[in-house]
Every structure is written in structure tokens, then in C-alpha cells.
TrEMBL record:
Domain of life: Bacteria
Record protein name field: Nitroreductase family deazaflavin-dependent oxidoreductase
Single annotated GO MF: oxidoreductase activity
Family annotation (InterPro entries): F420H2_quin_Rdtase, Split_barrel_FMN-bd
UniProt-listed Pfam families: F420H2_quin_red
């Protein structure tokens, strides 16, 4: 079972992104605006970025498939992204398969062992803290989402 970060702490970066100061938090975090699956109201979450390529941002759902933001994008995959100096760039979320999620998490751990270990400790997920092979079910427990956006955001 993953350990919960206190809500206040998890939501603390949101005002920084709203005021255009997201760049102070570095490239490893992004704020995602999604729509409530029932209300349709905009919701915000700050997430760890696993990988970033031209036109693609890959994030992880640290609290699994029961996270509210994750459940919301299953219903409404259109999102907006705040990261660095980008503000409200439109994108579309795609939930990766368990196998692809496993591969993404393994690549992240290999490329950024210290950051992966910190993430693993904060979520009480020892899979990410050691150097051995990841458990086969890690892609089910930590689903990964790919967000595609225009390569040249406004």
C-alpha cells in the first residue's frame, strides 16, 4: 500500500504554477489540469515527470488507479499542462498498458536512480529503491500516463 503525502503539501505547488512560477520547481514536475468525471469542473494535480520528449510528457500515478486525477482522465482525456514556462498547453492523455508502464518505470529508475529511490521512499514502494528487477506487477500498481501536446506550444 502506498503512503499518502498530506493533501496540503501535495497541493502547495499549484499556486506557483498558476502564477507562472512553475519553472522554479524544475523540469521533474508538471501541473496537469483535468476535468472532474462527474462535475466537469477543472481540477489540478502536480505530478512527477518520468520522461519528456518533443510533443510528449510521461507522468506516473503514484497512488495507482484509484487516484482521482487518474479516474478523471479515464473519462475526460483532454488536459492542459503547466511545466517550466508553459502555461495551459493543451494535451491529450493516454493510459499506458501495465507492460508499457513497467518498461517506463524501469527506464526511469535506470536513468535517474536517486530520483526513483526518493519517489519510491515517499510512496513506500520499495520496487523503485533497489537495483534488482522490478516486480512484474509494478505497472499495475503504478500506472503511467503519456500526454501528447503540440511540439511547439504557445
Amino acid at each position: 500500500m502506498t503512503r499518502r503525502i498530506p493533501r496540503r503539501l501535495a497541493r502547495a505547488p499549484i499556486p506557483m504554477y498558476r502564477h507562472g512560477l512553475g519553472w522554479l520547481l524544475g523540469p521533474r514536475l508538471a501541473m496537469i489540469e483535468h476535468r472532474g468525471r462527474r462535475s466537469g469542473q477543472p481540477r489540478h494535480v502536480v505530478l512527477e515527470v518520468l520522461e519528456r520528449d518533443a510533443g510528449t510528457l510521461v507522468v506516473v500515478s503514484g497512488y495507482g488507479r484509484t487516484s482521482q486525477w487518474f479516474r478523471n482522465i479515464e473519462v475526460h482525456p483532454d488536459v492542459r499542462i503547466w511545466t517550466g514556462r508553459w502555461r495551459g498547453v493543451p494535451g491529450r492523455a493516454e493510459i499506458l498498458s501495465a507492460g508499457d508502464s513497467h518498461d517506463q518505470l524501469e527506464r526511469y529508475r535506470d536513468r535517474h536512480p536517486r530520483a526513483a529511490a526518493n519517489l519510491g521512499r515517499s510512496l513506500a514502494m520499495p520496487d523503485l529503491t533497489n537495483a534488482g528487477p522490478l516486480a512484474p506487477d509494478v505497472g499495475l500498481r503504478l500506472p503511467v500516463v503519456r500526454i501528447r501536446y503540440p511540439e511547439e506550444p504557445p
